[in-house]
Structures are given as C-alpha cells and as structure tokens.
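Bug report (template v2)

What were you trying to do?
Predict the complex of my protein with nicotinamide-adenine-dinucleotide.

What happened?
Run completed; filing so the output is reviewed.

Input:
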Amino acid sequence: MTSASSTSHDPAAAIVTGAGAGIGQAAARMLNARGHRVLAVDVSADALAWTADQGGIEAFTADVSSDDDNRAMVAAALERFGRLDVLVLNAGIARRTHWEADDAVEAYDRIMAVNARGVVLGIRHGAPAIAESGGGAIVVVGSTSGVRADPERFAYDASKAAAINTARAAALDWAVRGVRVNVMAPGPTMTAILQGGRVTPEHLDELTRNIPLQRMGTPEEQAEAICFLASPAASFITGAVLMCDGGVTAQAGIFPPPRSG
Ligand SMILES: NC(=O)c1ccc[n+]([C@@H]2O[C@H](COP(=O)([O-])OP(=O)(O)OC[C@H]3O[C@@H](n4cnc5c(N)ncnc54)[C@H](O)[C@@H]3O)[C@@H](O)[C@H]2O)c1
C-alpha cells in the first residue's frame, strides 16, 4: 500500500503513536507488512522492544502530550525516511473518573493531555510534513466513548469527543494541502487498556453481551480499519468517523441486543 499522493519512488513512511501495545502495535505491523516504513512511537521505551527484530519498523520514545516530543517525533521520521505519508494518532489512556474524587481534576487534565492535546499536537507537527511530502492521511483513533458517554468515565468521554472534533476541524483546514484526516473509532477491543478502567471478568462478560456482534474486537480488526482510512482506497474520505465497534453505537440502548446462547 502506498500513500494516495506519493510523489517519489521512496517507499511510503508512517508514524504510529502508542505502538508499544494493542491496537497501535497491530497497526504498525500491518502498515509495515503493506509497504510502509514505520516509526513506532511510545512513551514506554520497554514497550517498543518488539520492534528490535522488525526490518522497516523503527522505535522512537515520545510522550504525545508534549509539544517538543511531537516535533522531535516528526523530525525523526523525516530524517530516517525522507518523507511522511501516514500519521496514526493512536496513543491513549483510560481510567475511571469520579466527579467528587480528590484526584478528579488531576485525572481529567492528564487524560485530556494525552487523548485530546496529543491529537492536536500530532496534527500540528505531522500535517505540514505530510503536505510537504505530497499529501497523505492522518488517522485519529477515537472511541465509541467519543460519540456516546459511558458511566464513571467523564474525562475519557470528553477527551475522545474532543479528539473526534479536532480531526473534523483538521480535515477542513488541511484538505487543500492534500492531507486527509479521519477518525477510526473502536469499540471494546481485547487490549490492556480495558484494565485501566479496572474492568473485572464479570464486567467483561456483561460488556460482551451488550455488543451486538456478541464478542470483543481484536487489535487486528482495528488495524484493518486504520489501514483502510490511511490507504488510497479511502482517497475521497476526509472528516469521517468510522465506527469499528461490533454495532455498539448503532443501539439506542433502551433494549439490550438479541443474545446468543
Ligand atoms: N481497547 C479498547 O477497547 C479501545 C476502545 C476504544 C478506543 N480505544 C483507543 O484505542 C487506542 C489504543 O488503545 P489500546 O487498547 O491499544 O491501548 P493499550 O493500553 O493496549 O496501548 C496504548 C499504548 O499507548 C502508549 N501510551 C500511553 N500514553 C502515551 C503517551 N502519553 N505517549 C505515547 N504513548 C503513550 C502506552 O504505553 C501503550 O503502549 C487508545 O487511543 C484508546 O483510547 C481502545
């Protein structure tokens, strides 16, 4: 797969944030398997150890909530690959938040800094580099929680809504320079992040029953949706939100979906 508007014969280049685990790691592997050189970015250097034996995938440690780190991340991709075609803004954190908790404000600020400001900063530094490379695509990883709200997660819900509308705004501002910006919004997916909300096995069972497709998604299914939006197959799609959620957000939520078994 190459970028929609590659202008040179260099292989396409991508950055994936939060590539140390879960959906980001799956997306980095898939983009690489489909012809991209990939800068795999994570706040945890240890989490990037898996890249060591992967030709075509290079590790870069950065905190997406930092403006300087985002600038350095994009500079590293340009230095190593000579171009930037695809930027996947996937890094995110989740945890329960309670309105009256002592740490409510601190938790809100940190979740917003990573999930919302991180998207702003990634676009701020990445979009000009993509435009200068001849155009390409940014995929923001949102969430069902950005279009609906979940209980006891007001900070996460707010951060993902902000990420989604930031992507729409960026789609408008960067279209003229050949940069498409879309959101891939996952529903419940088997990764470590669910533990951040301290999801118990009982919660997991209940959660699965409320997914119309009756199962959790996999990181690879999310990566497929990311790769689609990043690819020339999506060349007329910008400002869109692609739900990859097993039908979760199709529901009004008043009646539970028909269940198997
Ligand atoms: N798994 C789900 O059910 C689910 C559902 C909806 C949305 N999402 C979203 O998908 C994205 C990926 O989630 P996941 O389930 O793969 O999570 P994960 O916890 O498995 O992986 C997230 C990665 O991001 C990294 N990270 C965290 N903070 C960072 C920072 N400040 N800078 C750089 N890297 C950072 C972590 O170290 C980790 O390697 C997130 O944005 C998440 O909100 C996940």
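What did the reviewer find?
The pocket of nicotinamide-adenine-dinucleotide is lined by residues 17-18, 20-24, 42-44, 47, 63-65, 90-94, 114, 141, 143, 186, 188-189, 191-194 (CB under 6 Å). The beta strands are 13-17, 37-42, 57-61, 86-89, 136-141, 179-186, 241-244.
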